[in-house]
Design a protein that fits this description.
The complex is a heterodimer of chains A (about 575) and B (about 325).
Chain A (H helix, E strand, L loop, with lengths): L15 E12 L2 E13 L4 E5 L6 H9 L6 E9 L2 E2 L5 H7 L4 E4 L13 H12 L4 H14 L5 H4 L9 H12 L6 E5 L7 H18 L2 E6 L2 H7 L2 E6 L2 E7 H6 L4 H9 L26 E10 L6 E11 L4 E5 L6 H8 L7 E6 L2 E2 L5 H8 L2 E4 L13 H12 L5 H14 L16 H13 L5 E5 L7 H18 L2 E6 L2 H7 L2 E6 L2 E7 H4 L6 H9 L5 H23 L1
Parallel strand pairs in A: 3-8, 3-9, 6-7, 7-8, 13-18, 13-19, 16-17, 17-18
Antiparallel strand pairs in A: 1-2, 1-4, 4-5, 9-10, 11-12, 11-14, 14-15, 19-20
Helix pairs in contact in A: 3-4, 3-6, 4-6, 6-7, 7-19, 8-20, 10-16, 13-14, 13-15, 14-15, 15-16
Chain B lengths: L2 H29 L4 H6 L5 H10 L6 H13 L13 H36 L4 H15 L2 H15 L13 H5 L2 H31 L2 H8 L4 H23 L1 H14 L5 H10 L3 H29 L1 H4 L4
Classes of the chains: A alpha/beta (about 575), B mainly alpha (about 325).
Chain lengths: ~575, ~325
């Protein structure tokens, strides 16, 4: 940035100070308080992490501090940014503040940018909102900003539309917009939640570097304790709209004083790093000699034709055995969901064979294939979208019975539904409710009940807990493994979360770009990986222990630097 | 896909669509009871005269043969001769099409110029009294049949207030039509009314949807003011779905012209079609349908091209 600019306001007091901040949403069912009496401050150059589960009000605080609450929300109390009161301020005063003194980075880079405006222009717009520079100067500065946030070929990329960039690059563009005017305060609302771990690590490095360079104060809103350990100086823990605990990161994460914080941290799956096999489920280190329930042999899947063809899977062979959980891990685009859909028979492989319960799917007739499908249950990621909003919970769960067991009487169907609801630990009364009346975790257990009502031999779970809070995730995973012990089904578990897979799966397959990088017993592959790729993936996972994480970060950066010099040499 | 191969493919598709339309219309026309002979020769004509007429016009041949003859003429640029007006259909159409185009294009332009800002304005004032009032008026305008609206317009603005003439310009050339602009007002308003109603609704919905998008919040967080956000970002993003709808609206416009021209006695394609339909004048009817089919596929094609221009994702096949 140029020297003519205002320096990053090294002032005595905090750059952000909330005092008794409250936010009330007006809904059809009345006034709902989302945030109550929150007081906190962020000093220049420090990072305060605001953590909590969904609905705790942490994002609402971030938006309230920027004066960006939606029309049905009302803020009370005080939120002061660099001496300016935000609560009740006029829109024009807020516009003068936003993007200049305080900036914001959002969770969803896919939708955060105007799809029809070139990214360089969007950055230039923020510059010209606050500084009297020509369009040409702003465009040049936008390119410089893109370079600063690590976008390769910034001159060319400035002319790109958002859809032409990857998720990580889009987030870098949003960050470039946020730092365009050297703000004194940066509010980051789940800035890496939508990104892969390796990209997350890069974005966190970038944010840390930028904040350190300019002495920017950061309010980091996140649910990820690993990110907190990696980034924050201090932590404020939110629960039901209130702050229950504040303190330095090491105190809060390692010696939590509040009961809720302890519970929250207890539910976080921890990635075990290169110690003895203690984390891996002891059950099966070597492949069992049972007949596999589902087997992919040398499967390739190609989408599209000609030069637009995309090879989604390339020579993938894997097998799921009864009673065993196979974890399928990889970053977005690695083909893990495609592989699970091939196993379900939803995508026909371009080459290779798929067999379910010993029958070749490619040769089975449609009727036989249907019968085979009755032996598979599916749980998908989004608990809202995967249940029909017009059906009751009972009807959702009963649907597979209607399809595959047509002879069943209504009474038998009801009793089966009630029994499976018991098994997933949902009260039977929920059967008459609509899915929207349920919480995310309850909905996901309804999905699970529906998947298991036919007592399948294979459960395919595609990111079943990624949309859930950690404590809920823990409960759902517990239910799945208990039922697996009881019913003995095999489980194909697709996840991007290495820590969860480490705890939950006996075997793991690591996918990258449609190819299997390596596979083996979880305890070995995810503790002593054989490939650099898996090692890099593991190293990028932030662990929720600030001391350990500092060491891991230093190691990762050193390894990266070494890799770079090797390449250069 | 490159733009030229895309265009080539779309034009070929359009030709296929038009051929199918002519087949369907040809079949439908000939399936209608009665025939042109009785209408033209009059009630006194003998059975022999009718048979002779049908033989002269080739109407006694099997339908596929008749269609083949028609198609053969068509590729030579011959649309046949009107039974009732004794003029080549191509000549009738070249005389009348410009007038109808003038009327529909004027109605469309007036409609859009009013509807788009109106829709955006409503979106900015969502659920406030002004929004409710305009919404109500839109529904009234949309649900009022054009012929009724036209009569009301004539009654109020011509008979009672005497502001505008009740008859559209009668001149044969466009210059003559433009010589009486005040006479165009009522026909254009009648044609534009439902367009304003429909497209202000689309625009309102599209604007509201875009106003709640994340990128609007990002722009606000960057210090952009509401007016700038509205025009720089929301307007363009809202326009894409509206442009797509516009292509599909071409046949509706022509349908409206049919009624408006009849109502205001405007000698365009609509009136031609109307009179031809009453006398089973097959060549004229087929010619009109062909023109409307071409206008429709051209409209949708133009809409798709405009979308490719304003939304880079369409070209990349991402939207």
């Amino acid at each position: 940035m140029t020297a003519t600019q205002r320096p990053a306001a090294p002032q005595a007091g905090p750059i952000l100070e909330l005092d008794g901040l409250g936010v009330v949403f007006t809904t059809e069912s009345g006034e709902v308080p989302a945030v109550r009496g929150v007081s906190l401050h962020v000093a220049p150059g420090e990072t305060l992490a605001l953590v909590g589960e969904s609905g705790s009000g942490k994002s609402t605080i971030a938006l309230a501090a920027m004066g960006l609450l939606t029309g049905n929300a009302r803020a009370t109390g005080s939120a002061v940014i660099a001496g300016t009161q935000v609560v009740g301020a006029r829109e024009s005063d807020l516009a003068a503040l936003r993007g200049r003194t305080a900036s914001m980075v959002f969770q969803e880079p896919a939708t955060a940018l105007d799809p029809l405006t070139r990214v360089g222009r969007q950055i230039a717009e923020v510059i010209r909102n606050h500084r009297d520079v020509s369009a040409k100067e702003a465009a040049t500065e936008a390119v410089a900003l893109l370079r600063k946030v690590g976008i390769p070929e910034p001159e060319k990329r400035a002319a790109a539309y958002p859809f032409q960039l990857s998720g990580g690059q889009r987030q870098r563009v949003v960050i470039a917009m946020a730092i365009a005017n050297d703000p004194a305060l940066l509010i980051a609302d789940e800035p890496t939640t939508a990104l892969d771990v390796t990209v997350q690590a890069e974005i966190l490095d970038l944010l840390r570097r930028l904040a350190a360079e300019t002495g920017t104060g950061v309010l980091l809103v996140t649910h990820n304790m690993g990110v907190v350990a990696d980034f924050a100086d201090r932590v404020a823990v939110m629960y039901h709209g209130e702050i229950v605990e504040t303190g330095p990161v090491e105190d809060v994460l390692l010696r939590p004083s509040h009961d809720y914080t302890r519970r929250l941290l207890g539910a976080v799956p921890r990635l075990s790093v290169a110690e003895a096999d203690k984390a891996a489920p002891a059950a099966a280190a070597e492949a069992p000699d049972t007949e596999p329930v589902a087997e992919l042999r040398d499967v390739s899947v190609v989408f599209g034709r000609g030069k637009n063809a995309v090879r989604a899977l390339d020579g993938v062979s894997l097998a799921v055995h009864p009673g065993q959980t196979l974890g399928l891990v990889g970053e977005s685009g690695s083909g893990k969901s495609t592989a699970s859909r091939v196993a379900l028979g939803l995508i026909a492989p371009t080459s290779g064979t798929v067999s379910l319960f010993g029958t070749d799917l490619g040769r089975a007739r449609s009727r036989a294939r249907r019968a085979l499908r009755a032996g598979i249950g599916v749980v998908l990621q989004d608990p809202v979208a995967s249940l029909d909003a017009r059906m009751t919970v009972g009807e959702c769960v009963a649907e597979p019975l209607r399809v595959h067991q047509k002879g069943l009487s209504a009474k038998d169907r009801r009793s089966k539904v009630a029994a499976i609801l018991d098994r997933v630990r949902l009260p039977r009364e929920l059967a008459d409710r609509a899915p929207r009346e349920l919480s995310g975790g309850q909905r996901q257990r309804v999905s699970l009940a529906r998947a298991l009502v036919l007592e399948p031999r294979l459960l395919v779970a595609d990111e079943p807990t990624s949309a859930l809070d950690v404590s809920v995730q823990q409960a759902v995973l517990e239910v799945i493994s208990e039922l697996q012990d009881e019913l003995g089904f095999a489980c194909l578990f697709v996840s991007h979360d290495l820590a969860v897979v480490q705890h939950f799966a006996q075997r793991v397959v690591v996918l990258r770009g449609g190819r299997i990088q390596e596979q083996g017993p979880t305890g070995e592959t995810l503790l002593h990986p054989e490939t650099d790729y898996t090692r890099g993936l593991l190293a990028a996972v932030p662990v929720p222990d600030p001391v350990v994480q500092r060491g891991r970060r230093a190691e990762r950066l050193a390894a990266l630097a070494a890799g770079r010099t090797e390449v250069q040499a | 896909m490159s733009t030229s191969s895309y265009l080539l493919r779309r034009v070929l598709q359009a030709v296929v669509v038009i051929v199918i339309v002519t087949i369907v219309v040809f079949g439908l026309l000939h399936a209608l009871p009665g025939g042109p002979a009785r209408g033209i020769l009059g009630p006194q004509a003998t059975a022999q005269q009718i048979t002779a007429f049908n033989h002269d016009q080739g109407l006694d041949k099997p339908l596929p043969v008749q269609y083949f003859y028609y198609l053969n003429q068509l590729v030579h640029g011959d649309l046949g001769t009107s039974y009732t007006l004794n003029e080549p259909v191509s000549q009738l159409i070249t005389e009348r099409l410009p007038k109808t185009l003038l009327l529909t294009v004027l109605s469309a332009v007036v409609g859009l110029v009013l509807a788009i800002p109106l829709g955006m304005w409503q979106a900015m004032r969502r659920n406030k009294p002004a929004d409710y009032v305009i919404t109500t008026l839109s529904f009234i305008a949309y649900s009022t049949p054009v012929y009724f609206l036209g009569l009301v317009l004539v009654l109020v603005f011509s008979q009672t207030l005497s502001w505008f003439p009740s008859q559209a310009p009668q001149g044969d050339t466009l210059a003559q039509v433009f010589a009486e602009p005040q006479a165009l007002v009522l026909p254009v308003v009648a044609g534009a009314a439902s367009m304003i109603a429909v497209f202000s609704r689309y625009m309102r919905a599209a604007t509201l949807e875009n106003l709640s998008e994340d990128y609007v919040r990002t722009a606000r967080a960057g210090g952009s003011r509401s007016r700038a956000i509205l025009w720089r970002h929301v307007f363009r993003n809202s326009l894409t779905p509206v442009v797509a709808m516009l292509g599909y609206y071409v046949p509706v416009l022509f349908g409206g012209a049919l009624v408006v021209e009849q109502l205001f006695n405007y000698p365009g394609m609509g009136l031609l079609f109307w009179t031809a339909a009453q006398s089973s004048d097959y060549p004229v009817l087929l010619g009109c349908v062909l023109v409307i089919a071409i206008a429709t596929v051209t409209g949708t094609l133009l809409a798709d091209i405009v979308q490719r221009v304003i939304d880079p994702r369409v070209k990349a096949g991402r939207a």
